[in-house]
Amino acid sequence: MRGDFSRKPFRRDLHDAALVHQQGRVWLDGDWNEDVFDRLEQNEREATDVIGPCGIPDDPTTPDDDAYYEIEVDPALGPGDFRIHAGRAYVDGILTLLDADTTYLTQPDLPNPPPIIPPADTKQLDAVVYLDVWRRLITYLEDESVREPALGGPDTVARLRTIGQIKVQPVPVNPDKPLTCDSAHDVLPRPGS
Fold it and tell me: What mean pLDDT value characterizes the chain?
């Protein structure tokens, strides 16, 4: 995470419940950021404990509930594209939201997605479609709204945005070892790659 911060926030080993500001003391960005990261860690750990490593809403059909990143094949979109319905999902305790229906090729935060190239011959192609989630620091260079016009325009904050992207990992068909949910995990990129 790159930004102008006075110190690196958050130490998991301290098990802080919160930071408490004392009367008459200077309030630094490091204090605020450490408290934010403590709360994020607590929320993510709680969600993982309750939901598990990943999860979606139980009943996406209720009127006041979002769907769950439903993937739909739509022949009208042409080869190499599919529909992604708005929704929410939890991955490693991080809540990710997709506010509006989109497609693989037009989804937000994924410019120029890698094309899905079907085989030229009659062989089939299996693929693992997965949700990649992480947090990204957004500064004034990406979003001018973090500047404070009342102070003449300096950037007073940066945003920590949750990114969720539907990605596709093609896998050659192997009749001797069919692709299953258990074996799909083996072809996914490892965290941090």
Answer: 83
